[in-house]
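Recap quiz, item 2
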Amino acid sequence: MNTSISASGDLPLDPAAAFGVAGSSSRAMAPRTTLAPGEKLAVHDLTMRYANGHTALRDFNVSVSGGEMVVVLGSNGSGKSTFMKCVVGLNRPTSGSVEVAGRDLAALSGKALRRARLPLALISQNANLVKRRSVLANVCCGTLGRHRTLGTALGRVPREEIEPARAYLDEVGLLHLAGQRAGTLSGGQAQRVAVARALAQRPHVLLADEPVASLDPEAADEVMRLLRRLATEDGLAVVCVLHQPELAARYADRLVGLRRGRMEFDRPASQVSSQQIAQLYVDEAS
Ligand SMILES: Nc1ncnc2c1ncn2[C@@H]1O[C@H](COP(=O)(O)OP(=O)(O)OP(=O)(O)O)[C@@H](O)[C@H]1O
Ligand SMILES: [Mg+2]
């Protein structure tokens, strides 16, 4: 493997071989940025009508502060992913606003918008790792949004990002797998690596769209515990879409119910009845 250091001081994107994975825990070094007290993700009157005329989200409002974990529930097609994509900028909402720490993303464009979106990280159902790359290289990919140089465009990682990437891997309990090819991981391990990659982006807001959909109960529990800890201990604002109401009730501070693109409820998890949840999945036509 080529482990040479480029002229720019960056490292090749598959650096695991150059940096041994043995050694003591580096968890304390994991750099973290968080929302300041009082700052939050705030979504106002969000409406998304797709080009085919279908309105997937209507006048949706929600806010999530640092340290909070909110779970969004709703049946297939109710608009959950549409909401998440609007927040991270993969969808351009028809109307409404997405504010992070008081900054309205819709009012920004170009470089300013790209920067403003950096504190938002999205994890999806499939970990979407680069299978032939090492676990560590995949985590390093999370840093690339912060570095826009010729070197990173060529797939190189700034050398100062290697140790933090190892620390994020340690944080999800997988530092021992840093040098392993991502394609060899179990589903649960891959999803935890996806969380580490998201952390490498140094987000204030972590969005997870069905992060445990393909995991067995134990692995699902592990990923949910991890997300919960990132909210409680590290102060991230966590928004998670789930199809498992029981997991939602166990881990969330608040539950948001979506039905046909409209909010049905946004309440503390302890105040949502199983009847209210069941109602989200009832087909009105039946
Ligand atoms: N690009 C698109 N163009 C047109 N319609 C779309 C588009 N993306 C999603 N939709 C529609 O918007 C609605 C909401 O889709 P969305 O993916 O947000 O649902 P979801 O709640 O995430 O469902 P699931 O639980 O199955 O993931 C669906 O009816 C879907 O068909
Ligand atoms: Mg979805």
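DSSP finds nine helices and twelve strands in the chain.
Residues 188 and 215 are 6 Å apart (CA to CA).
End of item.
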